Amino acid sequence: MNPNQNPQTDIMSAPLKINLTEIIRQRLGNRSKWLPPFLFRPLEHLIRQDRLNQLLEAAWPEEGSGFSARILAELGITVKVEGLSQLPQGEAFEFVSNHPLGGLDGIALVGVLGAHYGDENIRVLVNDMLMNVAPLKDVFLPVNKYGSQGRDSARQIAAAFEAGKQILMFPAGLVSRLHPDGVVRDLEWQKSCVVKALEYGRRVVPVHFMGLNTPRFYRLARLRKRLGIKVNLEQAMLPAELCRAQGARYEIRFGAPVDVGAMRALGESPAAIAAALRATVYEL
Description:
- The chain has helices spanning 20-28, 40-46, 49-59, 64-74, 104-117, 147-162, 192-200, 215-226, 238-244, 260-265, 270-283, and strands spanning 78-82, 93-97, 122-127, 140-143, 166-169, 177-178, 184-185, 203-210, 249-254.
- The chain is α/β, with parallel strands linked by helices and 284 residues long.
- The longest helix has 16 residues, at 147-162.
- Helix 3 crosses helix 4 (64-74).
- A seven-stranded mixed beta sheet has the order 1-9-8-2-5-3-4, with helices on both faces. Strands 6-7 form a two-stranded antiparallel ribbon.
- Helices cover 41% and strands 15% of the residues.
- 31% of the residues are buried.
- It has eleven helices and nine strands.
C-alpha cells in the first residue's frame, strides 16, 4: 500500500465471496471428510449464497459507508432519516439502536452515520465473527469477552472512545423477536451500553430503526423456543432475510441525546437506565 494512502480507503484486491462449504469444512476439520458434497447445496440455497455473492460483487470495491450505499442500491432499498441533522456538532456520542433486521439495519446505519460523520469517525460494536465482512472491517469493532482476544477487543473499544469516535451499539445483542403480545421488539438490553457511556462521559443518542423481517423468521424463532432447542436456528435465516428485503423502505429516527450520568446521579442503576433507553427508542 502507498504509505500516503489512508488505510480506510484501501481497495480490496478482489470481492469478498461466501463459500459456506469451505467454512463448514474448516470448522469441522478432519470430521468434514465424512460429509458428502450433496449435503451442502441445500444449506447454500438456504442462506441464498449465490445472491449474496452477486451483491458483494456488485458492491466491490467499495468499503465502509460506500459499500453500504451500494448494497442498499442493489437491493432497491430506500431509507428515510429523521433527527440526525439536529444533533449538536462537534460532540462525540454513543448511539444505541434497536436491532430489528439483524443485518440490513447495521448496514444502513453504517451508511447513514458514515455519510454524516465520515467513516474514519465512526465505529460499530459487533460480534467478532462479523469482522470477516472485509468491506466493513475498518468501521467495525469486535466484541469478544474471552481470553487474549477479549483483552485486545477491550483495548480497541477503549481506544475508539478515547479518540472521540462516534460509537454505535445494538444493546440487545441479538435480533428482535416476536413477543407474546404480538409485537416485534428487542430482547432485554444489556447494561454495558450505559456502563461505557458513564465511563467515558458520553451522552447517549437513542435510535429507532423501523423495519421487520418476514413472518417465517419469527415463526421459526417461536417454534425453536417451544421445542426447547437452545441453538439459535433462526440466525441462519438472516442472510436470506437480507435478500428478501428487495425494494423495502425503512425509517431511522434519531432522538435527543440523553445524559445517563444525570440519571445515574439520581440513583438509577445501569440496568434500569438501559431499560429506560430501550423504552425511549420505541417511543420515537
